[in-house]
Amino acid sequence: MNSKDELYYSAIDLLHRLIGTPSISREEDAAAQIICETLQKNRFTPYRAGNNVWTFAREFDSEKPTVLLNSHIDTVKPTDSWSRPPFVPIEEDNRLYGLGSNDAGASVVSLLSAFIHLSETEQPYNLVFLASAEEEVSGQNGIVKALEQLPTIDFAVVGEPTGMQPAVCEKGLLVLDCSTHGKSGHAARNEGINALYKATETIEVLRTFEFPLASDLLGKVKMTVTQIQAGTQHNVIPDRCDFVVDVRTNDRYTNAEAIEILKSRFPEVEITPRSLRLNSSAISMQHPFVRRALLAGYKPFGSPTLSDQALMPFPSVKMGPGDSSRSHTADEYIILEEIREAIEVYICLLDRLQIEKSAQ
Prior knowledge:
This protein is an alpha/beta fold. It has eight helices and 16 strands. The strands form four sheets. Strands 1-2-6-3-7-15 form a six-stranded mixed β-sheet. The protein has a four-stranded antiparallel β-sheet with strand order 10-11-9-12.
């Protein structure tokens, strides 16, 4: 058995343990403990902030740049449509079924395996492995809590199911609470100002509204009205209508810029963003990691889905085993060979990678 075989089988064993340990967002304590124990078993010193766990490959050298390998240990809640027990790992036809197997347990164990292998030799960078919490809810006690305690990161690989193709940019997220206001009156008489009608007029404009700047890989900013609420009873003209807009920003706009454009276009609507922190992200196609991936035949793409990249103020690539279409679905699974491939690809693209140290 060669070392990569050992890494692979250890990764599968660890993924079995993680699937068998419920780790819903904000309830990752037991899974974090498993990661700590695994790091200690491999002679690394684990550090922990909340349910985020990280470690360093070797003694930290302040003269070197720092590379972060990150994925998340939390999962969404299982739906009622599972035909298999979500917290029982089941291997069947070269697939491993279980909640979090695809999103993102396979990435966690593959990145950890690559981290262990890369730490065995001197690298031209400091190497950090981080298993983070609360990614599925973009929680305040997730990756940001860990990044506050880490040294400056110069580049990160974020493990998410991308079929091991590198996502070199991803859309950001804005959730907008919007309100229109009118004047109440009796529905039987021609009185009042119907806030619901004002809202539907705005929604119709929003449905076709386009931001001027599109992205080569991410396309246009996408907006979707997802919720609406108005009225108190059938015979009262509603004086207020509330609706929610899901906005996926491309890398041509910060969330703050997108908000200003919308407020300028719809001055009669009260627009309140729930957060501005989940911005879009992008990395240069000339980055050494991206260039390596291109030379190896991988195809960079823009991702429409959100990840912890949105909270990383440094260059990053999202890349991991599995398929995004399996995420958050009943009977979620990972194909076992996808993990073996991921370990090998991570090692190939990261071994002795030369990157620049960021200006401090």
